[in-house]
Amino acid sequence: MITRMTKNLLVLIFLLHLVKTIEPPRYSRLHYQKSCGVVYFVHLPKSGGSAVTDYFYQHLGRSGIFDYDYFSTLNADHDIQRIGSADAFKTHKSDPSVYHNWVKQVDQIEGIVKNYDRKRPANGWSLIHQQSFTPGLKYSMSNITRWRRTIEKFGCKFVLLTVLRQPVKRMISHLHYFLVEHADVKDYVTGYGANFMLKSLLYGECDYSFDIPRCYGENMPTPTFSDLQYALDIVNQFDVIGTVEGFDQIRTQLDVFTGRKGGVEIFGLPHMRVAQEEQKNASYVLMEDEMQMLTKFGTGLDQIFYDKIAHKKDVSQVTQRSLYPNITCYVERYPDLFEAYCDFDEDKCKNADIYNHYVKEGKQNQLTLECRSVRDDDLICYAQRYEDLFKGFCDEDENSCDLDGLYNHYNENKETLNLVIGCKPEDRHTLCYADRYPDLKESFCTEEKCDVEELFRHWQLFGQKMN
Questions:
Q1: pLDDT given for residue 328 in this prediction
Q2: Same domain, 287 and 429
Q3: 0.70 surpassed by pTM
Q4: For labeling, which of 186, 313, 338, 357 is most exposed (least CB within 10 Å)?
Q5: Cβ atoms < 10 Å from Cβ of 406
Protein backbone atom coordinates (compact mmCIF):
# COMPACT_ATOMS: atom_id res chain seq x y z
CA MET A 1 0.00 0.00 0.00
CA ILE A 2 1.42 3.33 -1.01
CA THR A 3 1.58 5.81 1.82
CA ARG A 4 0.67 9.48 1.38
CA MET A 5 4.35 10.42 1.78
CA THR A 6 5.42 7.94 -0.88
CA LYS A 7 2.71 9.22 -3.24
CA ASN A 8 3.83 12.80 -2.78
CA LEU A 9 7.44 11.79 -3.42
CA LEU A 10 6.48 10.08 -6.68
CA VAL A 11 4.58 13.16 -7.83
CA LEU A 12 7.63 15.33 -7.07
CA ILE A 13 9.93 12.99 -9.03
CA PHE A 14 7.52 13.13 -12.01
CA LEU A 15 7.41 16.92 -11.96
CA LEU A 16 11.20 17.16 -11.82
CA HIS A 17 11.46 14.80 -14.80
CA LEU A 18 8.91 16.92 -16.67
CA VAL A 19 10.94 20.06 -16.11
CA LYS A 20 14.04 18.35 -17.54
CA THR A 21 12.39 16.86 -20.62
CA ILE A 22 9.98 19.58 -21.77
CA GLU A 23 11.85 22.28 -23.71
CA PRO A 24 10.66 25.82 -22.87
CA PRO A 25 9.42 27.93 -25.83
CA ARG A 26 12.24 29.22 -28.01
CA TYR A 27 10.89 32.79 -27.66
CA SER A 28 11.60 32.83 -23.94
CA ARG A 29 15.25 31.87 -24.45
CA LEU A 30 16.03 34.67 -26.89
CA HIS A 31 16.02 37.28 -24.17
CA TYR A 32 19.03 35.55 -22.65
CA GLN A 33 20.99 34.76 -25.78
CA LYS A 34 24.37 36.38 -26.09
CA SER A 35 23.70 37.84 -29.55
CA CYS A 36 21.07 37.57 -32.26
CA GLY A 37 19.64 39.95 -34.79
CA VAL A 38 19.11 41.15 -38.35
CA VAL A 39 21.29 43.57 -40.29
CA TYR A 40 19.20 45.40 -42.91
CA PHE A 41 21.67 46.77 -45.46
CA VAL A 42 20.47 49.47 -47.89
CA HIS A 43 23.00 49.10 -50.71
CA LEU A 44 23.50 52.31 -52.70
CA PRO A 45 25.01 51.82 -56.20
CA LYS A 46 28.77 52.26 -56.62
CA SER A 47 29.30 52.88 -52.91
CA GLY A 48 31.32 49.85 -51.86
CA GLY A 49 28.24 47.75 -51.16
CA SER A 50 29.46 44.63 -52.94
CA ALA A 51 32.51 44.54 -50.71
CA VAL A 52 30.31 44.83 -47.61
CA THR A 53 28.02 41.99 -48.76
CA ASP A 54 31.09 39.86 -49.50
CA TYR A 55 32.10 40.35 -45.87
CA PHE A 56 28.71 39.20 -44.65
CA TYR A 57 28.74 36.19 -46.99
CA GLN A 58 32.02 35.10 -45.45
CA HIS A 59 30.94 35.99 -41.94
CA LEU A 60 27.38 34.56 -41.96
CA GLY A 61 27.40 32.07 -44.83
CA ARG A 62 24.84 31.78 -47.62
CA SER A 63 21.99 30.61 -45.41
CA GLY A 64 22.08 33.76 -43.31
CA ILE A 65 21.52 36.18 -46.20
CA PHE A 66 18.42 37.24 -48.08
CA ASP A 67 19.05 39.33 -51.20
CA TYR A 68 16.16 41.74 -51.62
CA ASP A 69 17.34 42.45 -55.13
CA TYR A 70 16.06 41.46 -58.57
CA PHE A 71 19.33 40.15 -59.95
CA SER A 72 19.83 37.72 -57.06
CA THR A 73 16.76 35.82 -58.32
CA LEU A 74 18.47 34.96 -61.60
CA ASN A 75 20.63 32.21 -60.12
CA ALA A 76 19.15 28.95 -58.86
CA ASP A 77 21.89 28.55 -56.24
CA HIS A 78 21.10 32.02 -54.77
CA ASP A 79 24.60 33.20 -55.47
CA ILE A 80 25.17 36.94 -55.94
CA GLN A 81 24.32 37.95 -59.50
CA ARG A 82 26.36 40.89 -60.74
CA ILE A 83 25.58 42.57 -64.06
CA GLY A 84 28.80 42.92 -65.95
CA SER A 85 27.81 45.51 -68.55
CA ALA A 86 25.43 48.35 -69.23
CA ASP A 87 23.89 46.38 -72.11
CA ALA A 88 23.06 43.48 -69.81
CA PHE A 89 21.48 45.90 -67.37
CA LYS A 90 19.30 47.41 -70.12
CA THR A 91 18.24 43.94 -71.24
CA HIS A 92 17.00 42.98 -67.79
CA LYS A 93 15.20 46.24 -67.06
CA SER A 94 13.17 45.91 -70.27
CA ASP A 95 11.73 42.59 -69.08
CA PRO A 96 8.11 43.10 -67.77
CA SER A 97 8.60 40.31 -65.23
CA VAL A 98 10.97 42.68 -63.43
CA TYR A 99 8.28 45.27 -62.60
CA HIS A 100 6.78 43.69 -59.48
CA ASN A 101 9.44 41.16 -58.54
CA TRP A 102 10.03 43.24 -55.42
CA VAL A 103 6.47 42.53 -54.18
CA LYS A 104 7.18 38.79 -54.05
CA GLN A 105 10.42 39.44 -52.20
CA VAL A 106 8.68 41.64 -49.62
CA ASP A 107 6.33 38.72 -48.92
CA GLN A 108 9.39 36.51 -48.39
CA ILE A 109 10.89 39.02 -45.94
CA GLU A 110 7.58 39.10 -44.08
CA GLY A 111 7.89 35.35 -43.61
CA ILE A 112 11.50 35.56 -42.45
CA VAL A 113 10.70 38.24 -39.88
CA LYS A 114 7.46 36.66 -38.66
CA ASN A 115 9.19 33.32 -37.99
CA TYR A 116 12.51 34.66 -36.74
CA ASP A 117 11.82 33.41 -33.22
CA ARG A 118 11.72 29.84 -34.56
CA LYS A 119 13.86 29.86 -37.73
CA ARG A 120 17.14 31.66 -37.98
CA PRO A 121 20.82 30.84 -38.68
CA ALA A 122 22.74 28.89 -36.08
CA ASN A 123 24.97 31.85 -35.28
CA GLY A 124 21.92 34.01 -34.53
CA TRP A 125 22.41 36.68 -37.22
CA SER A 126 20.91 37.33 -40.66
CA LEU A 127 21.45 39.92 -43.39
CA ILE A 128 18.68 41.42 -45.53
CA HIS A 129 20.45 43.04 -48.47
CA GLN A 130 18.35 45.57 -50.40
CA GLN A 131 19.65 46.74 -53.76
CA SER A 132 18.47 46.77 -57.38
CA PHE A 133 14.91 47.34 -58.61
CA THR A 134 13.37 47.81 -55.16
CA PRO A 135 11.46 50.82 -53.74
CA GLY A 136 13.37 53.47 -51.82
CA LEU A 137 12.91 54.44 -48.21
CA LYS A 138 10.11 56.94 -48.90
CA TYR A 139 8.00 53.95 -49.87
CA SER A 140 9.47 51.16 -47.74
CA MET A 141 10.49 52.79 -44.43
CA SER A 142 7.19 51.86 -42.80
CA ASN A 143 7.88 48.19 -43.60
CA ILE A 144 11.41 48.40 -42.24
CA THR A 145 10.18 50.03 -39.03
CA ARG A 146 7.57 47.29 -38.56
CA TRP A 147 10.16 44.56 -39.19
CA ARG A 148 12.45 46.21 -36.64
CA ARG A 149 9.72 46.11 -33.98
CA THR A 150 9.01 42.43 -34.65
CA ILE A 151 12.67 41.40 -34.46
CA GLU A 152 13.19 43.42 -31.27
CA LYS A 153 10.04 41.85 -29.77
CA PHE A 154 11.82 38.50 -30.13
CA GLY A 155 14.67 39.84 -28.02
CA CYS A 156 17.06 40.32 -30.95
CA LYS A 157 18.70 43.40 -32.43
CA PHE A 158 17.83 45.12 -35.69
CA VAL A 159 20.65 47.06 -37.33
CA LEU A 160 19.79 49.41 -40.20
CA LEU A 161 22.96 50.00 -42.24
CA THR A 162 24.04 51.92 -45.32
CA VAL A 163 27.34 53.07 -46.84
CA LEU A 164 27.91 56.41 -48.58
CA ARG A 165 30.62 57.47 -50.99
CA GLN A 166 32.08 60.86 -51.88
CA PRO A 167 29.51 61.95 -54.52
CA VAL A 168 31.84 63.04 -57.33
CA LYS A 169 33.85 59.80 -57.07
CA ARG A 170 30.62 57.82 -56.92
CA MET A 171 29.27 59.56 -60.04
CA ILE A 172 32.47 59.02 -62.02
CA SER A 173 32.36 55.35 -61.07
CA HIS A 174 28.73 55.25 -62.25
CA LEU A 175 29.63 56.88 -65.56
CA HIS A 176 32.49 54.46 -66.07
CA TYR A 177 30.33 51.44 -65.17
CA PHE A 178 27.59 52.38 -67.65
CA LEU A 179 30.14 53.27 -70.33
CA VAL A 180 28.67 56.74 -70.79
CA GLU A 181 30.26 58.46 -73.79
CA HIS A 182 31.61 61.98 -73.28
CA ALA A 183 29.01 63.32 -75.70
CA ASP A 184 26.30 62.02 -73.35
CA VAL A 185 27.80 63.01 -69.98
CA LYS A 186 25.86 66.29 -69.59
CA ASP A 187 22.54 64.66 -70.42
CA TYR A 188 23.30 61.77 -68.05
CA VAL A 189 24.27 63.89 -65.02
CA THR A 190 21.27 66.21 -65.48
CA GLY A 191 18.91 63.30 -66.19
CA TYR A 192 19.03 59.69 -65.08
CA GLY A 193 22.13 60.13 -62.93
CA ALA A 194 21.25 63.43 -61.22
CA ASN A 195 21.83 63.16 -57.43
CA PHE A 196 21.67 59.39 -57.78
CA MET A 197 22.70 58.73 -54.19
CA LEU A 198 19.59 60.48 -52.84
CA LYS A 199 17.53 59.07 -55.71
CA SER A 200 18.50 55.50 -54.80
CA LEU A 201 18.10 56.03 -51.06
CA LEU A 202 14.64 57.59 -51.23
CA TYR A 203 13.12 56.24 -54.45
CA GLY A 204 15.11 53.20 -55.53
CA GLU A 205 14.79 52.40 -59.22
CA CYS A 206 11.01 52.61 -59.38
CA ASP A 207 8.30 54.37 -61.34
CA TYR A 208 5.67 55.66 -58.89
CA SER A 209 3.13 56.75 -61.49
CA PHE A 210 1.38 53.38 -61.04
CA ASP A 211 -0.75 52.28 -58.07
CA ILE A 212 1.81 49.57 -57.38
CA PRO A 213 5.27 51.00 -58.22
CA ARG A 214 7.07 49.37 -61.12
CA CYS A 215 10.74 48.88 -60.28
CA TYR A 216 12.71 48.58 -63.50
CA GLY A 217 15.13 51.53 -63.61
CA GLU A 218 12.97 53.99 -65.55
CA ASN A 219 11.03 57.18 -64.76
CA MET A 220 12.39 57.52 -61.22
CA PRO A 221 11.52 60.80 -59.44
CA THR A 222 14.09 63.60 -59.55
CA PRO A 223 15.40 64.49 -56.06
CA THR A 224 14.53 67.99 -54.83
CA PHE A 225 15.66 70.16 -51.93
CA SER A 226 12.71 68.90 -49.89
CA ASP A 227 13.98 65.34 -50.54
CA LEU A 228 17.36 66.39 -49.13
CA GLN A 229 15.61 67.61 -45.98
CA TYR A 230 13.63 64.36 -45.75
CA ALA A 231 16.79 62.27 -46.16
CA LEU A 232 18.58 64.20 -43.41
CA ASP A 233 15.66 63.43 -41.11
CA ILE A 234 15.26 59.77 -42.01
CA VAL A 235 18.93 58.87 -41.49
CA ASN A 236 18.32 59.36 -37.77
CA GLN A 237 16.64 55.97 -37.90
CA PHE A 238 19.84 54.28 -39.12
CA ASP A 239 22.00 52.44 -36.62
CA VAL A 240 25.16 52.42 -38.74
CA ILE A 241 26.03 54.85 -41.54
CA GLY A 242 29.51 54.32 -42.94
CA THR A 243 31.53 55.67 -45.83
CA VAL A 244 33.70 53.99 -48.42
CA GLU A 245 36.51 56.19 -47.10
CA GLY A 246 35.97 54.90 -43.54
CA PHE A 247 35.26 51.16 -43.67
CA ASP A 248 37.17 50.60 -40.45
CA GLN A 249 34.51 52.50 -38.51
CA ILE A 250 31.77 50.29 -40.01
CA ARG A 251 33.51 47.20 -38.66
CA THR A 252 33.83 48.76 -35.23
CA GLN A 253 30.15 49.74 -35.07
CA LEU A 254 28.98 46.32 -36.27
CA ASP A 255 31.14 44.65 -33.62
CA VAL A 256 29.36 46.71 -30.98
CA PHE A 257 25.91 45.67 -32.21
CA THR A 258 26.64 42.01 -32.87
CA GLY A 259 28.96 41.45 -29.93
CA ARG A 260 31.40 39.77 -32.29
CA LYS A 261 35.08 40.49 -32.57
CA GLY A 262 37.77 39.08 -34.79
CA GLY A 263 36.91 36.76 -37.64
CA VAL A 264 36.87 38.06 -41.19
CA GLU A 265 38.18 41.61 -41.41
CA ILE A 266 35.74 43.99 -43.03
CA PHE A 267 38.25 46.63 -44.00
CA GLY A 268 40.88 44.73 -45.92
CA LEU A 269 38.72 43.50 -48.81
CA PRO A 270 36.71 46.74 -49.32
CA HIS A 271 39.80 48.92 -49.32
CA MET A 272 41.37 46.64 -51.92
CA ARG A 273 38.21 46.68 -54.06
CA VAL A 274 37.86 50.47 -53.91
CA ALA A 275 41.53 51.00 -54.74
CA GLN A 276 41.24 48.71 -57.77
CA GLU A 277 38.08 50.44 -58.97
CA GLU A 278 39.48 53.97 -58.59
CA GLN A 279 42.55 52.89 -60.54
CA LYS A 280 40.23 51.83 -63.38
CA ASN A 281 38.20 55.05 -63.11
CA ALA A 282 41.35 57.16 -63.39
CA SER A 283 41.26 56.63 -67.16
CA TYR A 284 37.80 58.22 -67.33
CA VAL A 285 38.77 61.91 -67.37
CA LEU A 286 36.03 64.53 -67.65
CA MET A 287 36.37 67.82 -69.48
CA GLU A 288 36.07 71.01 -67.42
CA ASP A 289 32.54 71.82 -68.61
CA GLU A 290 31.45 68.21 -67.97
CA MET A 291 32.81 68.38 -64.43
CA GLN A 292 31.00 71.67 -63.83
CA MET A 293 27.70 70.13 -64.84
CA LEU A 294 28.43 67.05 -62.75
CA THR A 295 29.15 69.00 -59.55
CA LYS A 296 26.27 71.46 -60.00
CA PHE A 297 23.40 69.24 -61.13
CA GLY A 298 24.75 65.69 -60.92
CA THR A 299 25.89 65.76 -57.29
CA GLY A 300 24.82 69.12 -55.80
CA LEU A 301 22.24 67.76 -53.35
CA ASP A 302 24.20 64.53 -52.82
CA GLN A 303 27.22 66.56 -51.73
CA ILE A 304 25.23 68.50 -49.11
CA PHE A 305 23.86 65.21 -47.77
CA TYR A 306 27.29 63.57 -47.72
CA ASP A 307 28.99 66.54 -46.03
CA LYS A 308 26.39 66.57 -43.28
CA ILE A 309 26.50 62.82 -42.61
CA ALA A 310 30.18 62.06 -43.19
CA HIS A 311 31.77 65.29 -41.94
CA LYS A 312 29.09 66.70 -39.59
CA LYS A 313 29.08 69.91 -41.61
CA ASP A 314 26.55 72.56 -40.64
CA VAL A 315 24.12 72.81 -43.56
CA SER A 316 21.34 74.62 -41.69
CA GLN A 317 21.81 77.80 -43.74
CA VAL A 318 21.70 76.02 -47.11
CA THR A 319 18.51 76.64 -49.07
CA GLN A 320 17.17 75.88 -52.52
CA ARG A 321 17.74 79.52 -53.48
CA SER A 322 21.32 79.60 -52.18
CA LEU A 323 22.18 76.40 -54.08
CA TYR A 324 20.42 77.24 -57.33
CA PRO A 325 19.66 81.00 -57.39
CA ASN A 326 19.30 81.38 -61.16
CA ILE A 327 17.26 78.21 -61.55
CA THR A 328 14.91 79.39 -58.80
CA CYS A 329 14.54 82.87 -60.31
CA TYR A 330 13.96 81.41 -63.76
CA VAL A 331 11.15 79.11 -62.76
CA GLU A 332 9.45 81.60 -60.43
CA ARG A 333 9.47 84.20 -63.22
CA TYR A 334 7.16 82.02 -65.34
CA PRO A 335 4.10 80.69 -63.43
CA ASP A 336 3.46 77.80 -65.83
CA LEU A 337 7.01 76.53 -65.29
CA PHE A 338 6.80 77.09 -61.54
CA GLU A 339 3.70 74.89 -61.45
CA ALA A 340 5.07 72.20 -63.79
CA TYR A 341 8.52 71.83 -62.21
CA CYS A 342 7.97 72.93 -58.58
CA ASP A 343 4.26 72.57 -57.81
CA PHE A 344 4.44 76.22 -56.66
CA ASP A 345 7.00 75.31 -53.93
CA GLU A 346 10.63 76.22 -54.57
CA ASP A 347 11.85 73.43 -52.25
CA LYS A 348 10.23 70.94 -54.63
CA CYS A 349 11.91 72.32 -57.77
CA LYS A 350 13.42 69.69 -60.06
CA ASN A 351 16.58 71.66 -60.76
CA ALA A 352 18.17 69.48 -63.42
CA ASP A 353 14.85 69.22 -65.28
CA ILE A 354 14.44 73.01 -65.13
CA TYR A 355 17.93 73.54 -66.51
CA ASN A 356 17.21 71.10 -69.34
CA HIS A 357 14.04 73.04 -70.13
CA TYR A 358 16.02 76.26 -70.39
CA VAL A 359 18.65 74.70 -72.65
CA LYS A 360 16.15 73.02 -74.96
CA GLU A 361 13.29 75.54 -74.98
CA GLY A 362 13.78 78.61 -72.82
CA LYS A 363 16.93 79.87 -74.50
CA GLN A 364 15.36 79.58 -77.96
CA ASN A 365 12.32 81.51 -76.73
CA GLN A 366 14.57 84.20 -75.22
CA LEU A 367 13.52 83.44 -71.64
CA THR A 368 15.80 84.83 -68.92
CA LEU A 369 17.66 82.30 -66.77
CA GLU A 370 19.55 84.60 -64.40
CA CYS A 371 18.12 86.43 -61.43
CA ARG A 372 17.53 90.08 -62.34
CA SER A 373 19.80 92.44 -60.43
CA VAL A 374 17.45 95.39 -61.07
CA ARG A 375 14.15 96.07 -59.31
CA ASP A 376 10.93 95.98 -61.33
CA ASP A 377 10.23 99.68 -60.59
CA ASP A 378 13.65 100.65 -61.94
CA LEU A 379 12.98 98.73 -65.14
CA ILE A 380 9.68 100.55 -65.63
CA CYS A 381 11.42 103.90 -65.05
CA TYR A 382 14.04 102.80 -67.58
CA ALA A 383 11.32 102.23 -70.19
CA GLN A 384 9.60 105.53 -69.39
CA ARG A 385 12.87 107.38 -69.80
CA TYR A 386 13.14 106.31 -73.45
CA GLU A 387 10.01 106.74 -75.53
CA ASP A 388 10.83 103.99 -78.02
CA LEU A 389 11.42 101.46 -75.20
CA PHE A 390 8.20 102.41 -73.43
CA LYS A 391 6.30 101.89 -76.64
CA GLY A 392 8.11 98.73 -77.74
CA PHE A 393 8.30 96.88 -74.39
CA CYS A 394 5.28 98.30 -72.53
CA ASP A 395 2.81 99.28 -75.25
CA GLU A 396 2.77 102.64 -73.46
CA ASP A 397 1.25 101.03 -70.32
CA GLU A 398 3.51 100.60 -67.28
CA ASN A 399 1.40 97.64 -66.10
CA SER A 400 2.09 95.75 -69.34
CA CYS A 401 5.90 96.04 -69.49
CA ASP A 402 7.98 93.05 -70.59
CA LEU A 403 10.40 93.29 -67.68
CA ASP A 404 12.65 90.46 -68.89
CA GLY A 405 12.85 92.06 -72.32
CA LEU A 406 13.75 95.43 -70.77
CA TYR A 407 16.37 93.81 -68.54
CA ASN A 408 17.95 92.00 -71.47
CA HIS A 409 17.85 95.16 -73.60
CA TYR A 410 19.65 97.15 -70.92
CA ASN A 411 22.38 94.51 -70.40
CA GLU A 412 22.98 94.19 -74.13
CA ASN A 413 23.11 97.95 -74.88
CA LYS A 414 24.09 99.82 -71.71
CA GLU A 415 27.76 100.24 -72.64
CA THR A 416 27.38 101.20 -76.30
CA LEU A 417 24.37 103.50 -75.87
CA ASN A 418 25.18 104.93 -72.42
CA LEU A 419 21.72 103.98 -71.21
CA VAL A 420 20.53 104.93 -67.72
CA ILE A 421 18.41 102.56 -65.66
CA GLY A 422 16.48 103.17 -62.48
CA CYS A 423 14.08 105.72 -61.06
CA LYS A 424 15.64 109.03 -60.19
CA PRO A 425 15.58 109.91 -56.47
CA GLU A 426 13.67 112.82 -55.06
CA ASP A 427 14.63 116.10 -56.73
CA ARG A 428 16.15 117.44 -53.52
CA HIS A 429 18.76 114.65 -53.46
CA THR A 430 19.68 115.29 -57.07
CA LEU A 431 19.99 119.05 -56.38
CA CYS A 432 22.30 118.30 -53.45
CA TYR A 433 24.51 116.42 -55.91
CA ALA A 434 24.71 119.59 -58.06
CA ASP A 435 25.35 121.82 -55.04
CA ARG A 436 28.21 119.57 -54.01
CA TYR A 437 30.07 120.09 -57.32
CA PRO A 438 30.02 123.67 -58.71
CA ASP A 439 31.02 122.60 -62.20
CA LEU A 440 27.96 120.35 -62.41
CA LYS A 441 25.70 123.13 -61.19
CA GLU A 442 27.11 125.43 -63.82
CA SER A 443 26.58 122.82 -66.55
CA PHE A 444 23.08 121.59 -65.62
CA CYS A 445 21.44 124.52 -63.84
CA THR A 446 20.25 128.00 -64.75
CA GLU A 447 19.26 130.70 -62.30
CA GLU A 448 15.65 129.47 -62.43
CA LYS A 449 16.00 125.64 -62.27
CA CYS A 450 18.21 122.57 -62.76
CA ASP A 451 17.79 119.77 -65.30
CA VAL A 452 17.17 117.07 -62.71
CA GLU A 453 16.92 114.22 -65.25
CA GLU A 454 20.31 115.06 -66.78
CA LEU A 455 21.88 115.38 -63.34
CA PHE A 456 20.57 111.91 -62.48
CA ARG A 457 21.90 110.60 -65.80
CA HIS A 458 25.34 112.08 -64.99
CA TRP A 459 25.26 110.40 -61.59
CA GLN A 460 24.39 107.04 -63.12
CA LEU A 461 27.06 107.16 -65.83
CA PHE A 462 29.90 108.85 -63.94
CA GLY A 463 29.18 109.93 -60.38
CA GLN A 464 28.43 106.59 -58.73
CA LYS A 465 31.51 105.03 -60.36
CA MET A 466 33.72 107.69 -58.75
CA ASN A 467 32.00 107.54 -55.36
A1: 95
A2: no
A3: yes
A4: 313
A5: 25
